[in-house]
Amino acid sequence: MVPEGSPAQTAVAGKLAAGKEPAFQTVVVSARRRSIKEAGIEKALFAFTILSSILIFLIMFFVISKAIPVLQANGFSFVFSGGWDEHFVNAWLAPAGEPSWRFGALPLIAGTLYTTAGALLIALPFGLGCAIFLTELCPARLRKPLESTVRLLAAIPSVIYGLVGLLVVVPLIADQLISNELALQMINVCALDGTSLLAGMIVLSMMIVPIFIALAADALAAVPRRYKEASLALGVSHWRTIVKVMLPVARNGILAGAILAAGRAIGEAIALSMVTGSVANLPSVRHGLVFFLEPMRTLASTIIDNAEGMSVATCEAALFACASFLLVACIILSLFARLAAGGIQRKGGAAGG
Amino acid sequence: MQQTGITGAGRNATGIGNNPNNSKIMVQDISSWYGAQPVLKEVSMPIHAKSITGLIGPSGCGKSTFLRCLNRLNDLVRSFRLQGTITLDGEDIYHPDADVVLVRRKVGMVFQHPNPFPMSVFDNVAFGVREHNRQIKKRELEEIVVESLQKANLWEEVKDKLQASGLSLSGGQQQRLCIARVLAVMPEVILLDEPCSSLDPVSTAKIEELLLQLKNSYTVVVVTHNLGQARRISDYLGFFLDGRLVEYGAAAEVITNPREKATEDYLAGNFG
Ligand SMILES: Nc1ncnc2c1ncn2[C@@H]1O[C@H](COP(=O)(O)OP(=O)(O)OP(=O)(O)O)[C@@H](O)[C@H]1O
Ligand SMILES: [Mg+2]
């Protein structure tokens, strides 16, 4: 059998085209050419997809295999103990004959969780409010310009946010929230100079809020008009319609936006390394609200800030261990995102049927 | 919650307090535009209480626009503009002090395409009731839901699947669910915009029967493309053409003895 769209078949079609029904055959031939082209594109895309999934697996394999010596040497204490900066210096200075494998990444892991959670806590409610305002409440004239602004903000490189953080947020925290007495009081724990968990949370939330607004606004705008009209026509106020009808319908899309924002927050390195003080200090809740003012560092920032240690095998392995934690966290998040997106499709299908 | 007038103060903006001919709604000389495009042109028409007013006319003549003026749903369209007055029980529904939410509570609407919420059958009917009375007791709510489903002739078909999604019902059932949803909030007027256009003859018959029952307690306005349906159910009939109300009167009169040539042509099926 001749496969569809093969050269042989095209040739046959070409001969026929010269024969009886020229107009009709020309259409067939051009359609066939198109289908050959499309099949080619399809195959290329398929190959790219396969290639990129193989790449992802290779990266994962590479990162985790590099991390294994450190994870084996430390076991659970890698996750549950601190002292990273000290360990890192020790490993870096250790004589070649007796490498130091001891690492404790608790401050980094906790720091990543703190900044991400804090940023989400600020960004999600604020972003949702903005998305609702954009899609439902703002005057028509303002909507387009505001939307483009939000999309522009989402595209700004993170280092710019880091700069803004360093020039605005950090000094503000230092001036407004940290008194000399407080700094003195804490001097044996850590230096309070404005670079802090709080600065990290704020800068990170500024970074992720535009993406989240854009995605949440898209999700809200995609809510079928018929639901909104039905609710309003029942004499339900606009606000209650938004809360009780539109948000639930848009829920999965909003969730997907939140997950994407979380992914960006977890992986952010540069901006955080600029504003959090870059010390592997574990902010302690025992210090009360000072918790937020303590310097710290996340996993991603650590990989950047300690990158010069890569030349030492032990340090390299420790950084790859950080990377593997990030990788796993992101994979879990993207699985959640898939689930949320699946939910959207199921809903859409049911609505269609 | 229980307000009498839509303006709260019960103000009568136009001074037409006592309704002549027991008309529930008076439409007086309204013209409307979407942007610069005129749609309705100087339409005046009473809508009588406890009867069915049918609206017919060729596609694009402004029937839906007219209907959506009656519950101010056109307010959603930013470019929409209206001139003239519409009074409900003598009160101007477009008065600056009028409470649009209250207007819509009194004037319910059923849409051309069934649009149940993506919620359970029960919640679809309960939604509006809960919103209007957030302290309502579960018992009371259940009673209202059951009663509304019964009135909408849907109860027998859904009583065993109240928790199933409203979207899982058939098209005809969905449309009756939408009617039940409107009945549950106890409106005074029910607007229906081609409620049967996406339904099969059996579902259509069920809905027509339902409308005939409803007119005993509600004021009903139905837009329809189906002349047979207009004949079967309406007490009053309005014929729209190109944004104008060309003919209006008792349904039997309009159908058997139209005053205008255009109406005659339309009824004869010559256009539209
Ligand atoms: N939201 C809108 N924005 C702009 N123009 C509109 C809008 N809705 C309706 N129109 C215009 O108003 C005119 C009347 O529309 P309308 O929907 O009222 O007609 P109709 O009589 O209901 O027609 P059909 O029988 O097809 O439903 C049409 O020309 C339409 O293009
Ligand atoms: Mg219409």
Report the sheet-strand fraction of chain A. under 5%
CATH superfamily caption of chain B: P-loop containing nucleotide triphosphate hydrolases
Helix content of chain B: 25-40%
Instruction: Estimate the strand proportion of chain B.
Output: 15-25%
Q: In the CATH classification, which architecture of the largest domain in chain A applies?
A: Orthogonal Bundle
CATH topology of chain B: the name is Rossmann fold
Summing up helix and strand content along with how strands pair, one would put the structural category of chain B as alpha/beta
CATH class (first level) name of the largest domain in chain A? Mainly Alpha
CATH topology call of the largest domain in chain A: MetI-like fold
What does the radius of gyration of chain A come to?
27 Å
Break the fold down into its secondary structure elements and pairings.
The complex is a heterodimer of chains A (353) and B (272).
Chain A (H helix, E strand, L loop, with lengths): L6 H12 L3 H53 L2 H4 L3 H10 L12 H32 L2 H16 L2 H20 L2 H6 L11 H25 L3 H9 L4 H30 L2 H6 L23 H7 L7 H40 L1
Chain B lengths: L22 E12 L2 E12 L3 E5 L6 H8 L9 E9 L2 E2 L7 H7 E4 L10 H12 L5 H14 L3 H4 L12 H14 L4 E5 L7 H14 L4 E5 L3 H7 L2 E6 L2 E7 H6 L4 H7 L5
Structure report:
The complex is a heterodimer of chains A (353) and B (272). By secondary structure, chain A is mainly α. Chain A has 2 domains: 7-74; 106-352, Orthogonal Bundle (MetI-like fold), CATH 1.10.3720. Chain A has helices at 7-18, 22-74, 77-80, 84-93, 106-137, 140-155, 158-177, 180-185, 197-221, 225-233, 238-267, 270-275, 299-305, 313-352. Chain B is α/β, with parallel strands linked by helices and 272 residues long. Chain B has one domain (23-267): Rossmann fold, CATH 3.40.50.300. Chain B is built from 10 helices and 10 strands. In chain B, α3 packs across α4. Chain B starts with 22 loop residues before the first strand and ends in a 5-residue tail after the last helix. Chains A and B meet through α10, α11 and α14 of A and α2, α3 and α6 of B. The structure holds adenosine-5'-triphosphate (ATP) and magnesium ion. Magnesium ion binds next to α1 of chain B.
